[in-house]
Design goal:
Layout: H1 19-35, H2 42-56, H3 61-70, H4 72-75, H5 81-90, H6 97-110, H7 125-142, H8 147-162, H9 166-182, H10 196-220, H11 268-286, H12 291-316, H13 322-345, H14 356-383, H15 395-409, H16 417-432
Length: about 425
Amino acid sequence: MASADTPPRAVCVNSTPSPIIRSSLLLSTSFSDVLSTEPTTVDSTIYLQVLRIIRATGQFVDDISARYFHGVHIFIPIISRPRFHDQLVNFGAPPPTSFSLILLCMCLITYHPEFTSQDPESLDVKTLYITTKSLFAQIQAFNPPGLHIVQAGTIIAAYEYANKKIAESFATISTCIRMGYASRLHLAAPTPDMDHNSYQQAEEEGNTWWGMVACERTIFCELAPSSQPLASRVPARESRLPTEPMLAIPNTMPNALSPMESTSNASGFGCIAQATWLLDELFKTIEMTDADDRLNRLDGLDHTLRTVLAVIMDQSGGAWGTFCTANGMIIRGLFILHSEIINQVSRMTTCKRKSPDEWMKSSYLALDSFTKMVQDIAVAPNELPFSEIDTLPPSCAFVIQAALLHINDTGGRGDGVQEELEMATERFNHRWAGGK
């Protein structure tokens, strides 16, 4: 009888160039192995199948969860670590299929052949990606929308975004948001009168909703303006900010979003929420029809974004973590904002407040300044050990890409900035491009 920790029977998954066929072979072989153990329920069948797929990567569940919470969780802190570990160790029976799906998605986003001692020929990342998407579709088909399925889909969307599969990522997160609305996650509101378990669950649901909204707008930065509508609405500015569960105190309520001064007291996740709100304002402003009103509004947003960025950078003290995600979102927004100004005034002959040339010069100087800032950011991926690169949000790669685009548009630079940014891009591509 097969063991849950036994890898799937050896098959020549690499004998075909098609990752779709390799994925089908992996699924059929792992399923055949599971059937030999005579599982009694759908939950046990899926759980054992997921364990076999994980073992095919040369890892165990403990390896995956440790790497996930050390790295990926920093930039999408939607899963409560205490609740996850409680569910992992306290199941008297195989966990629900939706929880098994979470494990597989965590395996996907943390896996790279160089992170394990496993023979890299055993399972490539493309096959694992297609396998995970296939199981996600199956489990979604016979389960009602719920927290775990939404979280699993959000992890997949983050993986697709990191691999620059922007269209796929936006489609995935849009689906998750629709499921989140159906699950009423947008209404989750932990209150001080709740018991501990209810408070933790409501908090995780609220954090997951905020995480999806932030993820959607982060992805939207890489889409052509007006190409598609956003599926979610950003919570109102007076809404409760999300919190890191490890630090949450049930009888205290996080700051609302409205006063910008609260940024200095917000957690890293709270700063992500504030950056999300500002990106949403930017997207709305770009859609304004009156050109002069749009320019004035963009100018005001420029000041706000820079102010909030300075506060968050001061609060983080240069440390890496969830603050990096908020910083990356704001810097990406500033690149979009000034590129929009340049694009707009290049088609105008007159402007109300300043001449088109003055607007243009101001924005080019701003982009030069942001590019220098991004050079400082690029030091981290260039100096970090490769095994630690998951502690940096994938959005850093898109910020670096925006800086390189500006350098190329302005004729290049000879001070070494371009070379350092290109080196950082190569490091991110080496980590993530294998899933393309």
